[in-house]
Amino acid sequence: MIELRNVTYSYPDGEAPVLRDLSLRVEEGEFLLVIGASGAGKSTLLRCLNGLVPHFYGGAFQGEVRVAGRDPVAASPRGMSSLVGFVFQDPEAQFVVDVVEDELAFAMENHNLPQPLMRKRVEEVLDQLDIAPLRHRRISTLSGGEKQRVAIGAVLTLQPRVLVLDEPTSQLDPQAAEEVLTTLQKLNADLGLTIVLSEHRLERVVQYADRILYLPGGGRPPLIGQPREVLAQVDLAPPLVRLARALGWEPLPLTIKEGRRFARGLTSGFRPLTADRRPPTVDRQPAIEIRNLCFSYDGREALRGIDLKVRRGEFVALMGRNGSGKTTLLKQIVGLLHPQEGRVELWGQDTRRLGTEAIVRRVGYVPQNPNALLFADTLRDELDFTRR
Question: Cβ–Cβ contacts within 10 Å for residue 42, how many?
Fold first, then answer.
């Protein structure tokens, strides 16, 4: 299905090739997991499969890539779109319209498919991915997991034979990530879809992979094989596998269920640790105080009756599944959104009266997608921009 022969690629102005003399063969229906440190070339490899490299990114490309006999370099990303579905790390980067049903139909409209066929495929994808209740929702109101499933659905409407995903769970909570990965496993098992997926959090996905491709970076030769074979040889491994290697468990367990077989009896001699339960010393004056905060998006309730007090010196973890309102609450604190009911105070002052400029001088905010925060092309320019 997929074959790479002696692929070497350098980005424009790159000092060294990101991929060097890479050869690879992926069989139809295979689930291939691509792993490696940041900058090792995982995303670059995936972009070679639909022609984004070199068409969109430029640079120097050598070697051959074939997907179902088609050359992505000659065909271009548009020519490959019906064969290779590509889902980005940030699903919002590929959304074009704002309503779920319209987004699912958009790619088919570009391919000029008949309307009866388009309607049929939209219904099929809504059922396959269990997103029928979302069909009339605005994408901007969806949770991270819902957006990722809509992004997958948008490429599935063209019925590609290969699905390529670049770290699809990196911005999801554990439950949403599990839902997305279960969906991918079902597509692979039921439809025979060939899946090539890169991921950092291996404990989530290693159990689904037929093989693992490890890219060490620096143009060094890759390692490919069965999951246990590869994970036994690389430092980049899930915590369970690292523990198993340290204790000499064979064969390496890839799931908690497999690990339990080795762990039976190991805890009999352990004593529970006693934690220091004294509260941390913090300033009694509240830095943030929220009272009866309520907020809705287009009539859909996101926050209701939130009361919170954070004192100076405290470290507070905000937890909840995707769509529960965590980001909305943070945006209320930094003044990007304002309460429809209730109030938010910083150091005793209402955020609605402070203004954005006064808030940003006292509160730093790092969004989930760092690209939303960056404006310049270089680090120096970015820092200069921030100081203005």
Answer: 24
d(CA 237, CA 359): 41
* Residue 85 β-bridge partners: 163
Q: What is the pTM of this model?
A: 0.78
C-alpha to C-alpha distance for 254 and 211, rounded to whole angstroms: 13
- 3-class SS of residue 173: coil
Q: Which of 45-49, 50-54, 247-251 has the lowest mean pLDDT?
A: 247-251
Is residue 239 assigned to a domain? Answer: yes
- Whether residue 205 lies inside any domain: the answer is yes
**What is the extent of the structural domain holding 34?**
2-83+160-247
pLDDT for 324 beyond 90: no
Strands (E), the chain: 2-10, 19-26, 31-35, 60-67, 84-87, 162-166, 194-198, 211-214, 223-225, 286-297, 300-311, 341-346, 349-350
| Other CB atoms within 10 A of residue 9 CB | 23
Whether 182 is covered by a domain: the verdict is: yes
308 and 288 in contact (C-beta within 8 Å)?
yes
Give burial (CB, 10 Å; 0-12/13-18/19+) of 21: middle
Q: Is residue 124 part of a domain?
A: no
The pLDDT of 240-250, averaged and rounded, is 89
